[in-house]
Specification:
Number of strands: 7
Shape: globular
CATH architecture of the largest domain: Orthogonal Bundle
Distance between the termini: 40 Å
Strand content: 5-15%
Radius of gyration: 21 Å
Largest sheet: 4 strands, antiparallel
CATH topology of the largest domain: Triger factor/SurA peptide-binding fold
Helix content: 55-70%
Structural class: alpha+beta
CATH class of the largest domain: Mainly Alpha
Number of domains: 2
Oligomer: single chain
Amino acid sequence: MILFGSNKKKIFLIIALITLFIESNANSIENKIKLKINNEIITSYDIINEANYLKAFNRNFKDLDNQKIEEISKNSLTSQKIKKLEILKYIKKIDFNSQYIDRALEQNYKKMGIQSYDEFLAYLKVYSVDVNLIKEKISLDLLWKQLVLSKYSKKIKIDEKKLKNKITQNNNNKIKSYLLTEILFVAESKEELENKIKIIKESILKIGFENTALTYSVSDSSKDNGKIGWVSENSLNEKIKISLEKLNVGEITDLIIMPGSFLILKIEDIKLENKNINQDMELKRLIDIEKNKQLKQYSNIYFNKIKKDYQINEF
């Protein structure tokens, strides 16, 4: 995505006008407490800022109605506040400024096709988003992953023999990969599961898979419309691989039962690549993918466990 062309004066004029419109609307709204999670509050300004952030990083978010935008923004902020409170049980304060955060920030905006920090600041200004808000989110995300790793690292089990066999079986110089989007959700009873499946299916028909992922998915990928990216079939577990093999581009899997959660996948694209496999490097890559996959599952399990310990009051 190329955001800036040769006619920069015209672009910056448009940016200034949009920014003025956003700021004038935001300033006309009275700031009220909307939610309280233990002693942490979420205000109407916080919700506006979160909505602006989500619009900046999710291309279809602005197409949702205002009620749905507010609902998603409140849910997103609630998850962040719970994670922040849990993190602060183990450290004294959260540092939002470091070289590591800056590097992660650069990686994020370059994925969007933005080449410089100044261009990124200009892009954020269009949506009235403060760059420090982005840094805070990155920092919380990294600290949360570290916390989950510290609690569950001993539970991670890697079957290297199985991975080696998978590499050998697929070593035909043709690698099939899927561009995937996901919706991951939890349910504690059969009745709740049936209800959520119905709601999610109706939502997909009404607002599309990506916006449904943003609305209902509990995965970290939800903030990016459920995008996982390109995934080699070598790195998929057998259950998911079988579910995907029978589908074409644009199609959606049936419900896939995962440890502690339920998964629905959409195939955005498929590619076959000629590739000479270095078996040692491929093994290392698959081990990393498997570790991250298990940590992601434990992250969801841990969050749903601690969420019950926090008092959430809506005003």
